[in-house]
Each structure stands twice: as C-alpha cells, then as structure tokens.
Amino acid sequence: ALTQHADLAMYRAKEEGKNHYRWFDGTVAPESARLMELRNGLRRAMERGEFEVYYQPQIETATGKLSGLEALLRWKHPRLGQISPQQFIPLAEETGLIVEIGEWVLHTACAQNKAWHDAGCPKLRIAVNLSARQFAAPDLVGTVRNVLEQTGLDARFLELEITENMAMKNENLTTLEQLKDMGILLSIDDFGTQHSSLSYLKRLPVSRIKIDRSFVSGIGVDERDEAIIHAMLVIARRLHLSVVAEGVETEPQFGFLEEHNCDEIQGYLFFKPQSAEHIGKVLRDSLPG
Ligand code: C2E
Ligand code: CA
Ligand code: CA
Ligand code: CA
C-alpha cells in the first residue's frame, strides 16, 4: 500500500513501546525492516554462535593495577555486521530472549575467568550485567549457583551489575541477599541515572556503585557534574561502598577522579572492551617479571 503520500501515513507505534513504524493499513514500513531483522535474528544468533563476550579491564586508581573485568556482549550479524548492545539488548529484553542470552553470557564469562585463573593470570573479578527480565525469571539464584558449579569459579570472583530500578524493587531484595550470601559482589550500574532514592543504599546488600559516564564526561566542562560526582564519592565512602567511574576517556577526568579518591576507573583512556584472546594477552603482560 505504498502511495505517494505514504510517508504522511506513517506513525510511530509508541503505544507498543517499540521503535518501529507501521502504515495505517497495518503493514510494516521499510524503516522497521532493520529492527525486524534484528529482532528475528536474535534466536538464530544464539543457535549459530554469533554472540561473543568482550571484556573491559578496570583499574585501581591509586596503583594503576588491574582490578577487575566487565563482560560486555557483542553481536556479529552475518549481514549487518557489528550491532551495538544498545540496539539489540532492548530487543532481547522485549522478546524475553535476554534470559537465555544473559545466562549464556554469565556462563561464558565465568568459564573464561576461571580459565584465566587456571592459566596463572592475576586473579581478577569478572562483572556481568543482569537484566530486569532475569530477576523476573524463575530461580535466578539457582541459575547463578549452577553456573558457578559448572565452571568452577569461586563466587568471590563474580560481580553482578544491576541497575537502580532493579535494586529498588522490593521483590528482588531476597534474591539480592541470597546472591550476596553466596559471596558474590553486587554493584549498582549507571548510578545516578534512574529514579531512586538514596535511602535504598542503606538497606541493600550492594558493595559497589558505578558512576555513569554521563557524569564523568562533565568533568572539566560542567561544575554541576563535578559536584554530583564529589557528593556520590562522599556518600559512598560514608556507607562503605567502593566506587568505579565509568567511561573515563581523558587525563583531566582521571585526574579529578584520582584527586577525589575514586577507587576504580573503567574507560577508553586505559582499555576498550576487547576479545577474550586480546584481554588474555593484556592479563599475561600484567604479570610481574
Ligand atoms: P554498561 O553496562 O553501562 O556498559 C558500559 C558501556 O560503556 C559499554 O558499552 C562500554 O563499551 C562503554 N564504555 C566503556 N568505556 C567507555 C569510554 O571510555 N567511553 C565510551 N564512550 N564508552 C565506554 P557497550 O559494550 O556498547 O554496552 C552498552 C550497554 O549494553 C551496557 O552498558 C549494558 O547496559 C548493555 N549490555 C552489554 N552487555 C550486556 C549483557 O551481557 N547483558 C545485559 N543485560 N546488558 C548488557
Ligand atoms: Ca555495566
Ligand atoms: Ca554502566
Ligand atoms: Ca551506561
């Protein structure tokens, strides 16, 4: 039903919470072809091994030593090339496939970390991102326990990153406490970007907060961002939480964070996320002697 006025007949299906376009006759517009292809490709991607886990090192600010790694999912689409997680993670959440994909990431990251430990690399913690859907799925705690058993990774070398919204949900509290009791480190990702009250920090079993890149990028540019980071660091210290700053790209940003005693740094200034093969080399090179 393409007419010369077709573009006028297109609207965004906002009420569906999806970024796709439909014609008024209900057929899907060309603009959504890419999104549809991505959404439909997710299951195939799992089955055919198109996903890969990349790893981004974190640095202890005071010493410059490697302190941890964050696992970040990558999708090499056979036709469309590299797809950003910012594009496909929301689709995976929407379809529910994120539960399966997330479990695969967890397993892959834990197995890889254990392999690095066994190879004599410095024993670092591996951080894995959790999605809200994984909390809603049955038995997240059992899933995590199984993965640790299967891979042989000690729980204290696993960190799970959750967002404020997940942390704020009362029904998630027991799960979080059980994960913490297993020895897993919990951290709040993208800290300060979602709607939450600071008071939840005092009752949550989290050990770390990750300051979002949107604040870090304001260092040296916007005094308000600097004030917010400063306040976050003060509160975190008083609550005995450690702090990682994300998205550190420049020396001045690093300088500010170092001066304000931010515990750890993650960002392109030091390392980009890279393949396991590449990070394995970084880890071996970091060994003394
Ligand atoms: P995130 O968890 O906040 O991850 C940090 C993002 O910042 C990553 O983007 C990383 O590559 C990027 N980054 C790190 N340092 C810098 C820097 O210095 N400058 C800039 N500009 N960016 C930096 P990435 O890998 O594209 O992932 C985007 C988001 O996708 C993640 O944000 C996370 O929310 C989600 N994601 C990635 N992997 C997974 C996963 O396995 N499971 C789930 N549930 N979500 C994931
Ligand atoms: Ca994260
Ligand atoms: Ca983050
Ligand atoms: Ca982020």
Automatic annotation (TrEMBL):
Its main location: membrane. Residues 35-287 form the EAL domain. Keywords: Coiled coil, Membrane, Transmembrane, Transmembrane helix. GO terms for cellular component: membrane. GO terms for biological process: signal transduction. Signal peptide: none annotated. GO terms for molecular function: catalytic activity. The keyword Coiled coil applies. It comes from the Bacteria. It is found in: Membrane. This is Diguanylate cyclase. It comes from Paenibacillus herberti.
